[in-house]
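User: I'm curious whether this sequence folds into something compact or stays loose and floppy. Could you predict its structure so I can see for myself?
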Amino acid sequence: MNNNISNIGTFVSEHPEKKVQNLARYLSEDNLKRAFFKLNKRKAIGIDGVTANDYMRDLDANIHNLYERLVHMTYKPLPSRRVYIPKPGSNKKRPLGIPCLEDKIVQHVMAEILNEIYEQMFINESYGFRPKRNCHQAVTYLRNMIVTRKVNYIVDADIKGFFDNIDHEWMIKFLEYRIDDRRFIELINRFLKSGIIENEMYYETDKGTPQGGIISPILANIYLHFVQDLWVEKIVKPKSRGEVYYVRYADDSQICFQYKDDAERYYYSLIFRLNKFGLEVAENKTRIIAFGRFTKSDMEKRGIKGKPNTFSFLGFTFYLSQTKFTHKFTVKLKTDGKKLSAKMRKASVWLKHIRHHKVKEIICTINRSLRGHYQYYGVSDNYKCLYRFRWHIIRMLFKVLRSRGNRRRLTWDTYLNKILKENPIVNPRIYIKLYSDTAY
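Assistant: Here's the prediction. I'll summarize afterward.
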């Protein structure tokens, strides 16, 4: 029997109207073992304390035992271990669910199966957690739509606690739209209902899917595909009198309108639409803003002083500007101020923590971190923010080295002309060009 998961995608493309059956057979020993080797072995462990090395000692027997439990439907996922991680740009913390190793293996195979089924259904404007799609493509698409299309208003929408409030009944209904396999659906339901452990206390999960689970991103995409994406494509766009452009990355979405009344109608309709599916708009983070080619001139005509509105999406602040030489209208991006400040604070604490390491080791670690920062935030026109972050690191490193017992007499000149010359800190670099023309 051929259990190659890619066969599912072939079937779906050839029979777009048919439901997919017999999916449980793809949870084969070969696929489970392959999933084990794909796992990040350095990730945190679940409540059972089993590590990848522990499981590897008798891998074939462990995989066979797991497979037998799946076949006979005696497999039950263990509760996820809940931890909290800092939320970038905020003092709040984000809950994260850490599944056990076997649950990660099963979720990995199931996520691959779901991707093969639903990837062909998702709209082009959905970018989050999808193969060959990333944040940079989403921000580039949004920026180009604003610059090249008739965009005057933007609804900057945020869903309150999305992952914690996914309605399980609706989730199952959305899955059953394309899947006709009772056992496979039951396994997903067991993951949804598996519960969490926090401070040694068990909590039932009657709604939501924990962030951190391998299967959670694809389930979230399926949910929002039916709740929001199709609604925008089939209802909002046809009923709007002007042009409408939409982009979504996970639960973060932006929708652009030509006319204000279309934007207002969407804003109020969105509240009722989400409520129907157990979700809620974060009113303090959702707003309608004037943002487009004529925003600045309209402000001047109405006697409104100050700078035009800005908005943030995926860690970038979008702002209105002009091209450098031709002075044509354009939209530029820079690192979101809150996220930049949070990263600076985090870097300061981190440098103090490693201050007693060798200088060469510290700067090597700094350079690895900076390269990762540049690769994400290194987009057109964002050089100043990259340089600002690097300069903060340089100043903090100087303070840290001066605080060491044998460096109290370290001067700024010695620091720059000796230490940093021998161990240079990498310079900012633009990795992502948001537009092809160079006349900026």
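Summary: The mean pLDDT is 92. The longest helix spans residues 216-239.
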